[in-house]
Amino acid sequence: MKTVGACIIAKNEAALIGRMLESVKWCDQIVVVDTGSQDRTVEIAQAYGAEVHLDFVWCDDFSLCQNHAKAKMRTSWIISIDCDEILLSSEQEVRSAVEQANEVVRVTMVAEGDAKNEFGFGRIFRNIPEIFWCQPIHKHLNVPGEGERVGNVRIQYGWSPAHALDPDRSLRMLEQTVSTEENPTRNLYYLGREYLYKQRY
Questions:
Q1: Cβ neighbours for 128, distance < 8 A, ≥ 6 positions apart
Q2: Is 196 left (phi over 0), alpha (psi -120 to 50) or beta?
Q3: Burial letters for 45-80: b for 16+ Cβ neighbours within 10 Å, e otherwise?
Q4: Per residue, what are the HEC states of the chain?
Q5: What is the pLDDT of residues 7-61, one digit of tens each?
Q6: How many CB atoms lie within 10 A of CB 181?
Q7: HSE value, Cβ hemisphere, 13 Å, CA-based, for 38
């Protein structure tokens, strides 16, 4: 039987981490890598039976942190989920999709408060060394495409109040990433979007 675990990175997410963990509490393993919370994030995660690790020093690189967390997973399949998200699908729906998939399950990401705003994204994947996260920001798996269209797994995404503690983080990370990439087309788009948000026309 394929086992399924939830893999999470967190920092100062006490306001939201509980509802997210409630949605994945059935998982065979829950790993939370905390990168320096100063609120009750760790305490709440432990109350849900999560394995909490404090051994990653944040360095403005989401994929590096996600891969660090992935290395702690023992399940055959992994759900990567953020603290401001909720797994909308049941355990049965997730396990059914995993049984049908080869490597990566396409998950339908649904915006909180706007059910019509959705897109496909690979968020459930086999726990093998050949599959890993790429990009310091707006991370994605190294597998082409958005995942295999099996089952109907849905995750609701929102906005975390923790973002307000470092409001320039995305801009800072994107400027750094674009300055070092040989072909930064993808991240130039995201950087332009950040400039738009901040009215830096």
A1: none
A2: alpha
A3: beebebebbeeeeeeebbbebbebbbeebebebbbb
A4: CCCEEEEEEECCCCCCHHHHHHHCCCCCEEEEEECCCCCCHHHHHHHCCCEEECCCCCCCCHHHHHHHHHCCCCCCEEEECCCCEEECCCHHHHHHHHHHCCCEEEEEEEECCEEEEEEEEEEEEECCCCCCEECCCCCEECCCCCCECCCCCEEEECCCHHHHHCCCHHHHHHHHHHHHCCCCHHHHHHHHHHHHHCCCC
A5: 999 999 999 999 999 999 999 999 999 999 999 999 999 999 999 999 999 999 9
A6: 14
A7: 2
Q: Are 123 and 139 in contact (CB under 8 A)?
A: no
Q: Are 107 and 93 in contact (CB under 8 A)?
A: no
Tell me whether residue 168 is exposed, middle or buried, using C-beta atoms within 10 angstroms of its C-beta: 0 to 12, 13 to 18, 19 or more. exposed
Whether the pLDDT of residue 115 is over 80: the answer is: no
Amino acid at the residue 31: V
Beta-carbon contacts of 65 under 8 Å, excluding residues fewer than 6 positions away, are: 9, 33, 35, 56, 58
The per-residue pLDDT for range 95-113, each reduced to its tens digit, is 999 999 999 999 999 999 9
Q: Measured over all CA atoms, what is the biggest interatomic distance in the chain, rounded to whole angstroms? A: 53
